[in-house]
Design a protein that fits this description.
Blueprint: H1 11-19, H2 28-41, H3 46-51, H4 53-59, H5 65-69, H6 73-82, H7 89-109, H8 112-117, E1 125-126, H9 140-151, H10 159-168, E2 172-173
Helix pairs in contact: 2-7, 2-10, 9-10
Length: 186
Amino acid sequence: MEQCSWPQGNALMQTYHDEEWCRPNYDDRYIFEMLILEGAQAGLSWSIVLAKREAYQAAFNNFDIEYCAGLSDEDLESIRENGNVIKHFAKLQSVPTNAQAVLKIQKEFNSFSDFLWRFVEYEPVINSWETDAQIPPQSPLSVQISKDLKKRSFKFVGPVTTYSFLQAIGMVDDHIRSCKFHTLNR
């Protein structure tokens, strides 16, 4: 059975592909982690971000949303200087900004998960691509969610980043159809 080719033999990427990518997740902490990591990826490769994931988890208290919401610029500067994270300061500043926006959503919708999953009526979008090359960089759904997130003051949530984020939390299954991890093959 042919598998998605994008992990390219990288052990971290393969584990992420096999155990997390495109698997529905409803946990606000995990969803927030994926939002931040996908935003950190902008302009970089996912393998770089995955290699720094443990450092991100350590720096941001395992992506505790309330903790992250309270981080100051001084805290972020210390993380930038001392942590093995991507040093782009605006990306680091997106952590408390996005955490604060998540807290507002939790008050309004009960959870960040409920807010997001309502866009797909709580059912993942299951695609049936034959090759990785067919997977689009964005979709009408990612454009719609990106606009809503931006309206709510989220940062680093353009349509392409949002599409990767939707894959990361399993709202979209983009495993190629022949991959054993495709929803219809599990």
